[in-house]
Design brief:
The protein has 195 residues and is of the alpha/beta class. It is built from three helices and 20 strands.
């Protein structure tokens, strides 16, 4: 279960991790939380902190980053196939199937991110915000965009600096260089162990 951070996950005795889930690296799982089959909780590249009574459903991916730890408060549902990467989630948030939450983002208490919605990099949802099915939230505070509003979304999204935040490179860096760096970073992490 230890990752290249030389950290061993810490799972509260009242929590549970399914036999086919993978929990690796600098991970803390709080009381009463459940990590279901096929979920991956990866703290190899940065910390993951999961509060109490959190349910991470089948095949969700949770990843911490050195500059953006993944932090989940209490009483949160993370739906199947959700992708949470370097985000902060306050208490009592509903994260539906297929939701993506990117590095530097934050969802305030009581938010709902509905099926296949996106919380963009460095964007902050005010407490109690509902992101409709398939919509994108971007900005600080986040504005909500339907998928057909690309021009308006891009005006808010571009200055949030996705390539700088996620890959540490300026916009326009060739894909070959980005992937060389990604390969190098993931090459330092061991093959995932499971709990």
């Amino acid at each position: 279960m230890a990752g290249h951070t030389h950290s061993t996950p810490s799972v509260d005795p009242s929590a549970s991790v399914a036999s086919t889930a993978v929990v690796t690296g600098d991970v803390l799982i709080g009381p009463g939380s459940r990590i279901l089959h096929g979920a991956v909780v990866n703290g190899d590249l940065g910390p993951v902190r999961i509060g109490s009574d959190v349910v991470v459903m089948e095949n969700a991916l949770l990843r911490g980053r050195a500059a953006q730890p993944l932090t989940l408060g209490d009483a949160i549902l993370v739906g199947p196939h959700a992708h949470l990467n370097g985000t902060e989630v306050e208490d009592e948030v509903f994260i539906a199937t297929g939701v993506s939450m990117f590095p530097g983002s934050r969802a305030g208490s009581g938010c709902e991110l509905r099926i296949n919605s996106v919380l963009h990099v460095n964007s902050h949802l005010e407490p109690g915000t509902v992101v409709p099915i398939g919509w994108i939230a971007a900005g600080r505070p986040a504005q909500l965009f339907s998928p057909d509003q690309h021009e308006a979304l891009w005006a808010v999204q571009e200055p949030l600096d996705f390539p700088g935040t996620v890959y540490g490179v300026p916009r326009g860096t060739p894909m070959r260089e980005i992937m060389r760096r990604q390969s190098e970073a993931f090459g330092t992490a061991p093959a995932a162990g499971s709990r």
